[in-house]
Structure formats: structure tokens, C-alpha cells
Predict the structure of RdgB/HAM1 family non-canonical purine NTP pyrophosphatase.
Amino acid sequence: MAIRFVTGNDGKAREAQSYLEGITTVEQVPYDYTEIQSDSLEAIAVRGAEEAFAELEDVDPILVGDTGLFVDALGGFPGPYSAYVEDTVGVERLWRLVESEDDRRARFKTVLGFTDGDRTETFEGTLAGTIVSPRGDGGFGYDPIFEFNGQTLAEMDVEEKNAISHRGRALATFTEWYADQ
Ligand code: ITT
Ligand code: NA
């Protein structure tokens, strides 16, 4: 059975496939599930996976990913609202909010939600770093303002970022579990 990865981003589907190579095929499904308002990425991922499975009327299991950027000095903002904040406030102005803080630590967290219709499981991965003035042209989203080991994620090439990223770690944990099923 193939896994249907619900995402608008074909790079994420390719990344998932690279982890699951030799285990299963990953098919990208661009379904726009309802992002419930919640403080919890787990709750959003569980609901998203189950809604997509119910609506997309097929038997192959569903995988969704929800990511948030949690800034310590801002009490974890934007967290589960990261997509909305990127669209409205933007990445440059988030940097402006953090610029005057002494503590600029932040963390990305990705929660993958998997369901096969019988059971639903979640898998997480995190990456700790620092918010900095935007640098680099690669990546997407908040990558230009997130520094890890002296480089922003936007300064890394894709393989370098994927090897250390929150989503990469969540995919590795998921793959280990799935391979045992
Ligand atoms: P999907 O279609 O895959 O669901 P999305 O952008 O709606 O994409 P995510 O939960 O992956 O959903 O992302 C939430 C926000 O976090 C959004 O603003 C992204 O741009 C940003 N983001 C996600 N992963 C990121 C990464 O690896 N680096 C920088 N920003 C990221
Ligand atoms: Na998502």
C-alpha cells in the first residue's frame, strides 16, 4: 500500500519518499484539510489525518505534517499559528519582534499524523536554534531567520537542511515505526 502524504509542497513529499524508499511509495495528495484552532500541533495533525482519510475515500493510509515555530521570548508564538502569521505579519516582521529580546532562542516542531482508518498515531521531531536577521535564499517559510550551528536554514542546501531538520527527525521516527508494522 502506498502512503498518501497530504501537502501542497512536493518537496515535502519527495523528502518523505527518500526516508521510506524500499519500504513503501509516497504519493502527494494536495488536500486542504481544516486546520482547527488549537494550541496543540498533535491535535491538528490527528484531526487533519482523520478528516483527509474520511474525505478522500480510498484505502491507502494518510500522512499529514504540521509544523510550528516556537519563540521562547514570545511565549511560544507563533507556534500552531505559524502559517497564518507568515501570511499576515511575515517573516521579516517576526524578526523585528524578536530583535530587541536578549533571549532569541526558538524551536521548530513538526508533528506527523498517520492514520490507516483503524488507528491514528503521531510522531514528532524538533530543532532548536536562534532567531536572527534574515539571511540566505534557500528553503522556505521561516528558514531565513532561523539559525542552527552558525547557518540559517536558508543558507543550507536541501540535503543539509533535511539531515538535521524537525521534519527529517519526525520522518525518521515515523519510518522506524512504519517499517515494523
Ligand atoms: P502543507 O501543505 O504541507 O500542510 P503548510 O505550510 O500549510 O504546508 P506546515 O505545517 O508545514 O504547513 O507549516 C506551517 C508554517 O511553518 C508555514 O508558515 C511554513 O512556511 C512554516 N514552515 C514549515 N516547515 C518549515 C521549515 O522547514 N522551515 C521554515 N518554515 C517552515
Ligand atoms: Na501542514
